[in-house]
Amino acid sequence: MIEISAFSGVPQQIRGLVRDLRVRWALEEAGLSYVARLLPLGDQKKPEYRALQPFGQVPIFQEDGLVLFESGAIVLYIGERCESLLPRETGARARAVQWVVASLNSIEPFVMNFAMLDADNPARAGAEEFLRRRLAELSESLGDKPYLDGQRFTAGDLLMSTVLCILRGTNIVSSDPRLSAYVQRCTARPGYLRALDAQMGDFH
Amino acid sequence: MIEISAFSGVPQQIRGLVRDLRVRWALEEAGLSYVARLLPLGDQKKPEYRALQPFGQVPIFQEDGLVLFESGAIVLYIGERCESLLPRETGARARAVQWVVASLNSIEPFVMNFAMLDADNPARAGAEEFLRRRLAELSESLGDKPYLDGQRFTAGDLLMSTVLCILRGTNIVSSDPRLSAYVQRCTARPGYLRALDAQMGDFH
Questions:
Q1: ipTM score here?
Q2: Alpha carbon distance A101, B101 (integer Å)
Q3: CB B99 within 8 A of CB B154
Q4: Which of A50, A67, A86, A101 to mutate to test the interface with B (most CBs of B within 10 A)?
Q5: Which residue of chain B has the CA closest to A135?
Q6: Which positions in chain B have a beta carbon within 8 angstroms of at least one beta carbon in chain A?
Q7: Which of B69, B98, B137 sits opposite A73 (nearest CB)?
Q8: What is the pLDDT along chain B (204 residues), one digit of tens a residue?
Q9: Which of A66, A103, B109, B159 is the most exposed place for a label (fewest CB within 10 A)?
Q10: What span, in angstroms and rounded, lies between the C-alpha atoms of B187 and A37?
């Protein structure tokens, strides 16, 4: 049985954003069942958890003795069992991985740099300007396609849409009709909705 | 023939750090030959290049009509042809991917946040403190093992060591004997040295 770690409770503003959502969503796309091992917020920093996750972060994925962390890597691992996440054809597969990495290395760091700054922080304007420029490039690359690599949803879209969801409290994505429709398209998938329900349902 | 994009010249302080080095290194590990398409610095922002790389970054990888960007994704793609980068055994392979993602999403963003701030920036002390804490966790996880997953060098070590090299002008890695020895161990590999020579040799 697959087990993932998740929180039993977090502040309202990050509900639906904790990284186990990405893994739950991938498991739903793959049709794999799982159980969540729930941690009170703070317990991820304890030594027994850190022995499995050096940075004290959620989620961990465990199955038959295999222990993995980093939600992006876990999604890729699950993708090996789900052709809609990682296509079999070599080129399409490589481009799906490319968009996973782009989400995690070229978009998320700048989303987080902006999101972590309070409204009165003098660095916020610069972080927002950089982020808006980067997202305009992403929007241009998406163009009129429904998904980043064309007609098919892949693991790259799963990662990218969850990264863009971090900006839900701002107008940065919602003011771009293409990106906004893209996030809505991805998060309308039944697998996303089931994953979100499961994460929300696990919060007490 | 494999073609990668790289710069024909960059300032001294980033020579040996431009991301095509990661791809050159992976190609050396895999024993695959390639040619570099050299761009003057700035040309990566032109429309014809952006049509292939939406964020205007180096490198791009091209082979038989396949075009890929994101150095981490390209290293994973090359890893499919190189067992020392991506082991065949399922668990070892998943953990190698995990360390690739950890390098790109849990370490590099904080390395870059620190490295991009001038010495007199008031945010620098906080960025350094966060980074030192994160790297202490990495060092603890490495422990006495030669490589992140144990006895074998993988794509995860290729990525992590090149990320840590970004800090070469500071004492942040060099003051940690374990991480410092780890970076030296990785970058003593003949494949790294050939890749570094090739990048440096392409600067005019």
A1: 0.97
A2: 8
A3: yes
A4: A101
A5: B55
A6: 50, 54-57, 65-66, 68-70, 72-74, 76-77, 90-91, 94-95, 97-98, 100-102, 104-106, 108-109, 112-113, 123, 134, 137-138, 140-141
A7: B98
A8: 999 999 999 999 999 999 999 999 999 999 999 999 999 999 999 999 999 999 999 999 999 999 999 999 999 999 999 999 999 999 999 999 999 999 999 999 999 999 999 989 988 999 999 999 999 999 999 999 999 999 999 999 999 999 999 999 999 999 999 999 999 999 999 999 999 999 999 998
A9: A66
A10: 39
